[in-house]
Every structure is written in structure tokens, then in C-alpha cells.
Design the sequence.
């Protein structure tokens, strides 16, 4: 291995990542905006932690199509979890609980998926085959997720190159984990079965920043269709990272794009450090063949220990196993990620696979802090025949769990001799990652026998192509050329009103920056005033701006018209039939007189403001604010 | 290799395309279309699918169908036939454990997948079963025999007779318990007929199946099998029973008497229910909890009565308002010997049918009345219509379930054509196909939405 020194995150350069051979790819999951779920007729997007009943399932590994048990499957089975599903009967039916076969695929979801596929220049699959993808963690009650490839290939432009896509698949969303303690895992089922589009890029991203930027492009692209869900949890990404000599590691469920760079950095660091650790073991003469470890039941030596977790365990009748890792001294305190050590890799495995979820779940002799006393350590080493060069690791629990735990300690320690074991890892909030499960292979996929293949007809492709919105990167380019501020260009490009923006600029000759202000900023102002701005439609913007361009209303009235549109009122009734005329002071004077008669103004300081707003309302947008203000100056109040 | 094996499921255009590029199923290929290059393995195609697509499994594990008309080239890299196999294991034989025989009729317990039909094929040898349900070895010394390989809707006289005889043989050999694997759709028909064909068994005869295919991690198959084998090996309930999930959770199974059980939901796990009574027992991994005591107890002898008599010309008439008499005449004209009516309410049909029914009875056809409500008794004496129907000579089958009555009448008519003797057989219950009373908890169809029912469901997993 070449020499390389990890710098702090902020100081790493593109050249540093190139030297590491950093490569990353993304799997982006985006919920689609449909009325119903993907394979049943339950309403989509009804979230609530409230539940009416619970069911219990266990997951057992089964034979895949290609005749092998998937290794993730077998690992999960070792954990023997009680999986509890909390069910809200408003959002879940017998399908999601796997008590009914699926209904035919949601056509609306398929249309949206195809649309996004076309937007990324992908090849839409001629005949869609629905597959079952096994998940033994229980995140789907059936034990598999129904998923289907909708498109292959395609790309998104990024700087001066193309980021190629591998595929897009339409799949049902999984449960949300509520808790996972010991042998019991609880899931909420409200998200279950929602249509989810997974976009997979090739592993061609060269730096952590590229990861975030490309993810952002893809997210903006899908959002620009206006046909995907937004908000917390509606978009999530899996990140895969490798470095030269390392292994492709998948980090699951990153909720926010800004977290990606640090996660990428830490994973690169982890792989680098694990490779160095392997070299250290090699230097000590430890490889796959020469690796030595053993397990002993040491419960009887620790009955009087002062170390509380073990003392408590023994008094509850649990057992303590001691794993001796030959010649491993100091290896468990080898740094892997920021403030994270190799012992964490082992502890994670024990937690997930042996269900020993109360931490600490292991202690070891490479740890400098206080655990068992040094005399207890000496007694142990003597009793089991461990030398000072060996690392000893203790794990405790009921017989079965402690035994599984001890086995896992040995398995993970031995994997250190090969470098970076293939795993799925989970993103942690501090930017590091932890073990989730063994990386599943393609063996866990097999055809769904409940649903026939689905042909994508040419008519369907033509229909969707004909209504295809412009790709976001084209929009952005065009809008920049209109010389509107960068923020507006980017925001409008992925707003659902991009089309109307273009129309009012082109057809009505509205100044681009003003059009962007109306479309982006006016709704924000109205939202602040408590209006439901989701009710604003393209046609509202168009009609109102058209009236403005024909001088049938003044600028200040635009927002008033929008307000009326939201309220469902006739916003066109105060557009004038002819152009707005010169300001007529007399008319304004009349109105002021009327206002004086009807309104008593207590707060003298606010007098002017109140008149202003009253007048504006009664002139219903036919005069500019500045004109009224001017008129008021001339009138004795 | 036979060519149809090499192109399994492909026909027409797709077959021509494969041949053109010398590609077969299981070939490792690169398929070039005018839009994309696909790398993967060619899979067999379902026979019901069209002839315009070739299916490949991509490296990512997903399958896609490629339109043949877009295919420009198929480059073949190699071919590796894939065989389905469950990890091979010998079932650890332990003579100290009770010997249990598992008969297969075609339901899926452990399974592998078949591309051709998209079906799940059962894996059945004890070794196969041990590979997928190793827990069985802790319960019994298992032997298996595949009697038939038919879907449950294709079960018929041949299979019923054969199964009954095979059970008889096994009992006489001294086997301690019998399990019959069966598809669930008609399991209650088979359970009923076996209750009549196999009488006085000294050991449990337990029917079992699965509602969710065994290829899925959440399948009920393994647990149902464990429960059934446990009952066969350990329980003292020497009757023909059905052992299936008690509710949808992986929790306990219910043991239903073969003559009172019915499939009540097209897909739910807990689809089997005892009708008009309570089940015999609850079963979980640890224990068997009897819910009643009036069952036939296990004995040490090897005696059993096998009577496979059966008349196939028996039908069931599911009454509906304004049913036309020609249906009945058609049964008469076609030489039917027995008719079970699933009547409305307490056992009623409309007046226009009367002459036809009269003619059937005069033609020496046995006509029995059951209720399509499933719960409750035929009580034709309550209303005039009923009295008139009785008057015609229609015999009440009391609270015998319609399908059970169908099976029993076929069995009775198989033994004798003397309708008086048939009546005696029909009305003498073998094992509770008619009960004297319906306990008040024998009819419980809970209605969701009612606060106390929803409460119950919230507090006891459904
Ligand atoms: Zn549903």
C-alpha cells in the first residue's frame, strides 16, 4: 500500500481522493406522488404513529431462484427476532400484511416512473417483470419487497461529463423502524407499500462533494416533475463507497444530502484504516489460514467482579464467554473512523446478530479504561491460556446469544485479515457509519409469481413523451441566459411552475425577474399570512399576469388577485375591461370621504396606513400603491 | 438436451430470435438492442406469456423482458445450467422419537420455484424438509411419501381413495402419527371425506398446508408444518384434523375437526375456522392445548377401518332466488344419485322447484338439505315452505356443512343404493358432522368497527 495520511475532512483535496482511488455511487429513493399505494388501493401518504392492532411475524430464509440461500438471509435468521407490526387500519389493508395477494400495479406510479426515466435519457424496459427482493430484517411483512426495473441506462449531465445511470426501479416502500431491543423489533407500517422510485448511478463519483452535487441534480430533476412527494422521509439515499483495495460498501438510508460528504469521507477513512490493519496483521504473520481464536465459558471466574454489567448479567443467570484472539494485542483499539475503533466493528456485529443490544455488549483487553480488574484479567488469561500478546474479548448474555456473540467476534476478527468485509452499513448522525447487515447478493431476487409481466406499450411511451417537461438542466441553462438572478434560475427550474414561467416570459413579455418574483416570492408572502398556497394553479399565474400585461390590473393588485384565487373567489371580476386610466384624485377623495364616514380610527399614527389599505381594496387593484400614496399627500385627512 | 428444455416457454418470434443467435435459456449473454446493451442470463419464459419478449436476469438480480423486434444481436458467453436445490441434508433419523409419516398430495410446504409456470414446486424428501424446516428433527422421526402432485382443485376420488388407503397401510405398520400435506383450497373437502373413509384411527391424522407460498420468508408453511407434525407425534387426538394458523401472527395454530372445518377467506393465513363449534386444540411450538375433551383418544393398537366407497354422481345445488327447475331436471337426466341443497335460511327453496324435486325423489335420488348460511341448523318444520319441502321427501342434514354433506352423501351412496340405509348412514354422525347442539361461542363472526371488538383486536393481536 502506498503512503497516505488522512487529513481532516475540510482539508482533503480532490487530489487526495484521487490518490485513495475513491469511488462512489448513489441509490436514490424517491416517493412518488400518487393517490394510492403501489400494489393495493390504500391511500398513499397517510402518516400517523397511531395504531389499532399489532401482528407478530418471524422471518426465515428461503431458497432463491438460483438455488442458493442468500447469505444475508442466513445471517438474519441467526438473530431470531420477534417482529411486531403496528397497524393503522386507515392506511394499511390485508395486502401490506401479506394476507392478500397484490392487486395490479398502480398505473399512475408507473407513468411517473416512466416520465422520470425518459427525463434521464434512459431506455424504458419493454416488458416489466416484478421481482421479490428478500428482506429478512422484517422491514416488509412479506419478507420481500416487490420491485421492478422500469428503465436501464441513461445519464444526467454534471459539469463537463455525464453521470451514467445503471437502472431505475419502481418498488414498494418499507416499514419505519420504531424500536429494536434484544429479540424484539417494532415497525410502524404507515409508509409501507407507497410507491418508491430507486435510481442507481454507476460508481463514478470521485469526491464526497460530487456525491452531494450529483444527488442534488437528481433530486431536483425528479422534483421538477411536480409528481413526487416532498418533505421529511420522502427522499432517501443509499451511498456506496470504495477505495483502491477496498470493498464496495453500501451505507443505507441517508436522509439528507448535506450529510453525504462527511459520510463518504469517513467510509473512505474506514476502508483505508482497515486495509492498514490488515497489513499490520500480515506483518504479525496473521492471515486467513494462520488466524487463531477460541472461546471459553468464563462465568465462574467473574462471579465477584466489580464490573457492573457483567456482575448483573451473572446474577441474572447469564453466561460470560471469553474469546481469545491470538496475537491481536492493540488491534481492537485500531482507529477506523473519526473517534471510532475496530472494537466498534465487532460490537456492532454482536449487537445486530446476537441481539445483544444493551451497550456495552463486549469488553476487551485493548481498551485502556476501567472494566474488569487487572487481577481478574490475569486470572482469566491464566485459566484460558492467553498470553499478553493475545487480545481477550468478553461477551455476556443468555447461553444462545452469548454463544452467537462469541462466534461473531471471531468471524469479524478473522475478516480483518482480508481487509474490508462486504456489508451494508447504516449512516449515523455524527457522520460515521455502523454495521447494518451482510451485503445481500443478487440471490435474494426472484420473480414474483403473483403478478404477470407488464408490457409497456408504444402508445403509452408516446403519450408520456408528448407531455414530457423540459429537463431541469436545460431549464437552468435557459433561465441563466435570461439573466435572472442565479437563485431564481435554479429555483424556478425545479418548481412545478417552470412551464408557466416560460409561457409568461415568452408569450406575455413579462420581465423574467418580475415573473420569477411573482411565481416564487408572492406565494411565500401569502403563505406567511396563512393562506394555503398549494391551491395556486398554473392558470392563476397565467391569467393574472396576462391581465397585468394588458394593463387591466396594476402590479400591486397581482397579489390580491392571487389571494382571491386561493380563496376560490372570482379573481377576474376586478380586471378592468379597459386599460387603467390616469389617476383620478377626485375619485380617491370620494372614497376617503366614504371611509371616514364608516370607519373610526383610534390609533392616529396608523391613520395613513389604514386609509391606504382601505383605498387599495376599494379601487380593487386599478391603481398603483404609489399613486394612491401621492394622492393622499394632497388630501387633508 | 431436448430442445423444448433449452427454450423452455419460448415460442414464435422469441423462439426464432433465440435460435437465430444460437442462444438458449441459462446462457450468459449480451443482448444489444437499438437502445441499450443488456448483460445477463436468459431465463425460461412463462408459458402463458406472449411470444414477443425474451426475459433476462440482469447482473443486479432483476429480470426484464426485451422486445424481440428491437434485438440487434445476442452475444453468448457461455452457459451454466441452474438447478434448483435446497441445501442437501440427511434427515437425522432418531428411533427414540415417534415415527411420523408425511404424505404429500401436492400442496407446498418447502418449495423451489419453477420458471415455466411461475409456480412453486414442493421440495419434499425428508432431507429437503430438514434443509428448510430443521425444527422437525426435534419433534419426530420423519418419513415422507409423495402420493400425488396435484393442485388442491384437482383432488378427486382417485386421490381420496389412494390417500385413505395409504393412511390405513401406515397405521397398520405402527406409525405414531400421520400428516397429510394438501393445498388449502379444497382441504376441507378432503378432511371431510378422510373423516368418513378412515375411521377408528388409533393415531392422529393431521392435514396441513400453507396460505402464503413457502418461498417467502414470512410464509406460514414452516410453522404450520411444525405444528402439524407436533400434533401427529405428540398429541392424543386420534382424529382427522386440519392444523392451520389460528390468527395471522406467527403465534399458534388451531386444530380443527375434519368434519366441521371450512376455508373462510381466499387469502388470509387464519382462513380455516371451525363452524358451529369450537376447535379441538391450540398448538404452538411448545405445547398442545386442548380446547375440549370429547375427542377420540390415541390408542396403542394398529386397528383402523378403511372404507373408500364413493359415488361420484352426487352434486350440490346452491339455491338462489328464482332458481329454475331445469337445473334439477338436468341432474335427474344426467343420472345423478344424490343432491345436496344448500338452501336459504333454515333450509328453503322456492315453490317452482317443488315439482322438479318431487321428480328427483321419485327417481330414487337422495335429496338432502343443508344451509348456505353455514352456521345454524336446517329447521324445515318452522315455516310452511319448509314443511312442504319435507313433505316432498327432502331430508334435513341438520347442521352438517354443505361440502361435508356432499362428501358424506357420496360416501354413503357408494356403499348402498337403498335410500333408507343411506339415510341411516347420513344421520348417524361419524365424528360430529352433525352435532346435537351449537354452543353460543360456536358462532362468532366479529364485526370490526364496534368499539369492543376493536378493543379486543387492539389488545390481542389479530
Ligand atoms: Zn393496502
Sequence:
Amino acid at each position: 500500500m502506498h503512503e497516505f495520511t488522512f487529513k481532516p475532512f475540510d482539508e482533503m483535496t480532490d487530489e487526495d481522493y484521487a490518490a485513495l482511488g475513491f469511488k462512489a455511487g448513489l441509490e436514490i429513493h424517491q416517493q412518488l406522488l400518487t393517490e394510492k399505494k403501489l400494489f393495493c388501493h390504500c391511500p398513499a401518504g397517510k402518516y400517523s404513529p397511531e395504531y389499532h392492532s399489532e401482528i407478530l411475524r418471524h422471518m426465515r430464509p428461503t431458497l432463491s431462484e438460483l438455488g442458493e440461500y442468500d447469505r444475508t438471509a442466513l445471517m438474519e435468521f441467526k438473530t431470531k427476532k420477534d417482529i411486531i407490526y403496528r397497524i393503522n387500519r386507515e392506511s394499511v389493508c390485508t395486502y401490506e400484511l401479506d394476507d392478500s395477494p397484490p392487486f395490479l400495479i398502480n398505473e399512475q406510479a408507473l407513468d411517473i416512473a416512466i416520465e422520470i426515466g425518459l427525463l434521464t435519457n434512459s431506455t424504458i424496459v419493454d416488458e416489466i417483470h416484478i421481482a421479490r427482493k428478500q428482506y429478512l430484517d422484517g422491514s416488509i411483512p412479506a419478507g420481500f419487497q416487490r420491485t421492478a426495473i422500469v428503465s436501464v441506462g441513461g445519464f444526467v449531465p454534471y459539469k463537463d461529463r455525464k453521470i451514467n445511470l445503471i437502472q431505475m426501479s419502481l418498488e414498494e416502500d418499507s416499514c419505519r423502524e420504531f424500536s429494536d431491543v434484544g429479540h424484539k423489533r417494532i415497525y410502524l407500517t404507515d409508509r409501507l407499500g407507497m410507491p418508491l422510485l430507486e435510481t442507481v448511478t454507476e460508481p463514478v463519483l470521485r469526491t464526497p462533494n460530487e456525491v452531494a452535487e450529483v444527488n442534488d441534480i437528481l433530486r431536483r430533476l425528479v422534483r421538477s416533475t411536480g409528481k413526487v412527494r416532498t418533505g421529511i422521509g420522502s427522499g432517501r439515499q443509499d451511498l456506496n463507497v470504495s477505495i483502491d483495495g477496498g470493498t464496495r460498501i453500501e451505507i443505507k438510508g441517508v436522509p439528507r444530502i448535506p450529510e453525504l460528504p462527511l459520510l463518504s469521507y469517513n467510509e473512505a477513512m474506514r476502508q483505508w484504516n482497515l486495509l492498514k490493519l490488515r497489513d499490520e496483521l500480515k506483518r504479525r504473520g496473521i492471515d486467513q489460514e494462520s488466524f487463531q481464536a477460541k472461546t471459553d465459558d468464563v462465568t465462574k471466574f467473574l462471579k465477584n467482579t466489580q464490573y457492573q454489567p457483567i456482575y448483573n448479567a451473572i446474577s441474572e443467570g447469564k453466561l460470560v464467554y471469553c474469546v481469545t484472539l491470538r496475537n491481536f494485542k492493540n488491534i481492537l483499539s485500531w482507529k477506523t473512523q473519526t473517534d471510532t475503533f475496530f472494537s466498534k466493528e465487532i460490537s456492532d456485529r454482536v449487537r445486530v446478530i446476537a441481539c445483544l443490544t444493551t451497550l456495552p455488549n463486549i469488553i476487551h483487553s485493548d481498551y485502556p479504561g476501567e472494566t474488569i480488574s487487572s487481577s481478574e484479567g490475569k486470572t482469566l488469561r491464566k485459566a484460558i491460556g492467553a498470553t499478553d500478546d493475545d487480545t481477550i474479548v468478553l461477551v455476556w448474555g443468555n447461553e444462545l446469544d452469548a454463544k452467537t456473540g462469541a462466534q461473531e467476534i471471531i468471524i469479524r476478527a478473522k475478516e480483518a485479515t482480508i481487509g474490508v468485509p462486504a456489508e451494508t452499513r447504516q449512516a449515523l448522525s455524527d457522520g460515521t457509519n455502523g454495521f447494518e447487515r451482510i451485503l445481500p447478493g443478487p440471490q435474494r431476487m426472484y420473480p414474483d409469481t403473483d403478478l404477470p409481466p407488464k408490457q409497456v406499450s408504444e402508445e403509452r411511451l408516446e403519450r408520456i413523451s408528448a407531455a414530457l417537461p423540459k429537463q431541469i438542466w436545460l431549464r437552468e441553462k435557459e433561465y441563466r441566459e435570461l439573466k435572472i438572478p442565479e437563485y431564481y434560475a435554479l429555483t424556478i427550474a425545479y418548481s412545478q411552475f417552470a412551464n408557466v414561467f416560460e409561457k409568461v416570459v415568452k408569450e406575455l413579455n413579462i420581465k423574467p425577474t418580475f415573473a420569477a418574483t411573482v411565481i416564487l416570492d408572492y406565494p411565500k408572502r401569502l403563505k406567511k399570512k396563512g393562506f394555503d398556497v398549494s391551491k395556486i394553479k398554473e392558470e392563476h399565474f397565467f391569467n393574472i399576469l396576462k391581465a397585468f400585461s394588458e394593463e387591466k390590473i396594476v402590479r400591486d393588485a397581482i397579489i390580491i388577485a392571487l389571494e382571491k384565487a386561493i380563496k376560490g373567489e372570482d379573481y377576474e371580476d376586478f380586471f378592468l375591461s379597459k386599460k387603467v386610466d390616469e389617476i383620478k384624485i377626485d375619485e380617491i377623495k370620494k372614497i376617503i370621504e366614504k371611509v371616514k364616514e364608516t370607519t373610526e380610527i383610534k390609533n392616529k399614527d396608523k391613520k395613513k396606513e389604514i386609509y391606504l389599505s382601505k383605498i387599495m381594496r376599494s379601487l380593487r387593484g386599478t391603481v398603483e400603491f404609489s399613486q394612491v400614496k401621492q394622492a393622499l399627500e394632497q388630501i387633508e385627512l | 438436451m431436448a430442445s423444448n428444455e433449452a427454450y423452455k416457454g419460448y415460442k414464435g418470434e422469441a423462439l426464432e430470435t433465440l435460435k437465430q443467435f444460437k442462444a438458449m435459456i441459462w446462457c450468459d449473454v449480451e443482448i444489444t438492442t437499438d437502445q441499450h446493451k443488456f448483460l445477463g442470463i436468459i431465463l425460461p419464459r412463462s408459458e402463458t406469456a406472449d411470444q414477443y419478449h425474451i426475459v433476462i436476469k440482469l447482473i443486479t438480480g432483476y429480470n426484464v423482458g426485451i422486445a424481440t423486434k428491437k434485438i440487434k444481436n445476442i452475444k453468448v458467453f457461455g452457459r451454466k445450467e441452474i438447478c434448483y436445490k435446497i441445501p442437501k441434508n440427511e434427515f437425522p433419523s432418531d428411533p427414540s422419537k415417534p415415527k411420523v409419516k408425511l404424505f404429500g398430495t401436492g400442496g407446498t410446504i418447502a418449495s423451489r420455484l419453477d420458471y415455466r409456470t411461475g409456480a412453486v414446486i414442493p421440495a419434499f424428501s425428508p432431507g429437503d424438509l430438514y434443509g428448510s424446516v430443521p425444527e422437525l428433527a426435534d419433534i419426530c422421526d420423519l418419513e415422507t411419501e409423495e402420493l400425488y402432485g396435484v393442485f388442491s382443485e384437482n383432488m378427486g376420488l382417485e386421490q381420496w381413495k389412494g390417500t385413505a388407503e395409504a393412511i390405513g397401510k401406515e397405521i397398520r405398520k405402527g406409525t405414531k402419527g400421520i400428516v397429510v400435506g394438501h393445498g388449502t383450497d379444497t382441504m376441507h373437502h378432503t378432511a371431510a371425506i378422510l373423516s368418513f373413509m378412515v375411521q377408528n384411527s388409533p393415531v392422529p391424522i393431521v392435514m396441513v398446508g400453507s396460505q402464503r407460498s413457502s418461498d417467502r420468508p414470512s410464509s406460514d408453511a414452516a410453522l404450520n408444518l411444525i405444528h402439524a407434525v407436533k400434533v401427529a407425534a405428540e398429541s392424543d387426538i386420534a382424529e382427522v384434523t386440519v392444523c392451520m394458523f389460528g390468527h395471522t401472527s406467527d403465534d399458534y395454530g388451531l386444530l380443527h375437526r375434519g368434519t366441521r372445518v371450512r376455508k373462510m377467506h381466499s387469502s388470509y393465513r387464519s382462513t380455516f375456522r371451525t363452524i358451529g363449534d369450537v376447535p379441538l386444540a391450540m398448538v404452538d411450538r411448545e405445547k398442545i392445548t386442548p380446547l375440549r375433551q370429547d375427542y377420540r383418544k390415541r390408542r396403542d393398537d394398529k386397528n383402523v377401518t378403511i372404507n373408500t366407497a364413493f359415488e361420484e354422481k352426487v352434486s350440490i345445488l346452491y339455491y338462489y332466488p328464482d332458481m329454475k327447475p331445469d337445473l334439477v331436471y338436468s341432474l335427474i337426466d344426467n343420472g345423478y344419485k344424490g343432491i345436496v341443497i344448500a338452501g336459504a335460511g333454515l333450509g328453503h327453496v322456492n315453490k317452482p322447484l317443488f315439482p322438479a324435486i318431487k321428480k328427483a325423489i321419485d327417481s330414487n335420488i337422495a335429496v338432502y338439505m343443508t344451509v348456505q348460511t353455514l352456521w345454524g341448523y336446517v329447521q324445515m318444520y318452522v315455516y310452511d315452505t319448509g314443511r312442504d319441502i319435507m313433505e316432498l321427501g327432502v331430508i334435513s342434514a341438520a347442521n352438517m356443512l354443505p361440502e361435508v354433506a356432499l362428501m358424506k352423501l357420496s360416501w354413503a351412496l357408494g356403499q348402498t343404493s337403498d335410500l333408507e340405509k343411506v339415510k341411516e348412514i347420513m344421520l348417524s354422525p361419524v365424528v360430529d358432522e352433525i352435532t346435537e347442539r351449537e354452543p353460543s361461542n360456536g358462532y362468532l363472526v366479529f364485526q370490526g368497527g364496534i368499539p369492543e371488538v376493536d378493543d379486543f383486536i387492539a389488545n390481542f393481536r389479530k
Q: What stands out?
A: The two ends of chain A are 86 Å apart (CA to CA). Residues 470-566 of chain A form one domain. The pocket of zinc ion is lined by residues A 37, 40, 42, 92-93, 95-96, 193 (CB under 6 Å).
